[in-house]
Write a structure and sequence with these properties.
- The protein is α/β, with parallel strands linked by helices and 257 residues long.
- It has one domain: Rossmann fold (3-Layer(aba) Sandwich).
- It is globular and about 55 Å long.
């Protein structure tokens, strides 16, 4: 049997402030290749060059990665604000439609950070632009130096920051073999109201939604707010999630054979 093909969504980026590109973090690609056992293939988060139906005829699974840009507020009926930029409206269009299509066709879908947020919005949910501004919530953004610059050490940036309580008997508890985990935190936006088919399966100690499952999905359809692509070779939580995604890819292949 061939390696499962996994589509990994790209993000709009400008190189040297001149050249428009699509890019994917290498950690995402390596997690798919080295832990899930798949062949990662980036596709553009741009609707004019990404045919979703053709894409889903080609791949065995989809990864919606984290990204710098926020989901545009008009996607959940809120006015945009400059302080919550940047946005990536083209990725929004692809990712939201893709989330619904994957679930409908039984294609494994794994949303990470922005990917979880996209899955929630795709099924009618809303987001808060800055979770840390909600009373009682912690600062979920990545660590920075005193001068405001991003911390230069990735082990500090991706260090475990808070606990997450998992739903007993839920998909995450079954995959991970426990009901409490500790995860990293690198986000500003987060789930405010869950979508109609969005089941909450993990909540941080401050009440922030950290893990979701799409109800009645025929295959793997999970989202996490933390960056599960970080060091899944050695992080047992992240490794088990990518292994479970890999098992779903193989099952999808066999069902389609």
């Amino acid at each position: 049997m061939r390696k499962p093909v996994v589509g990994v969504i790209g993000n709009a980026h400008r190189v040297e402030n001149r050249f428009q590109v699509q890019m994917v973090g290498e950690r995402n690609l390596r997690a798919v290749a080295e832990v899930s056992g798949g062949l990662p293939v980036m596709f553009a988060g741009s609707p004019d060059i990404t045919d979703i139906a053709a894409l889903l005829d080609t791949v065995d699974g989809i990864i919606l990665t984290g990204a710098r840009a926020n989901v545009h507020p008009t996607r959940f009926n809120v006015d945009p604000c400059e302080k919550h930029e940047p946005y990536d409206i083209h990725r929004d269009e692809v990712a939201l439609a893709l989330s619904v299509a994957c679930v409908a066709r039984g294609i494994p879908l794994f949303g990470i950070c922005r990917g979880l947020q996209e899955m929630n919005v795709a099924f009618g949910g809303s987001l808060h632009p800055e979770i840390r501004e909600i009373p009682g919530r912690m600062n979920h953004r990545m660590p920075r130096l005193e001068n405001g610059e991003i911390h230069p050490d990735p082990t500090v940036i991706f260090a475990d920051r808070h606990d997450v309580d998992l739903t007993p008997g839920g998909a995450f508890a079954r995959i991970l073999g426990c009901e409490k985990i500790r995860v990293n935190s690198l986000h500003g936006q987060g789930i405010l109201d869950p979508g109609k088919r969005v089941l909450i399966e993990g909540v941080a100690e401050d009440g922030t939604i950290e893990a979701i499952r799409i109800a009645e999905a025929p295959s793997f359809a999970l989202g996490v707010q933390w960056h599960a692509e970080y060091d899944p070779q050695h992080n047992p939580i992240n490794r088990k999630l990518f292994e479970a995604f890999g098992e779903a890819l193989v099952a999808r292949q066999k069902a389609a054979a």
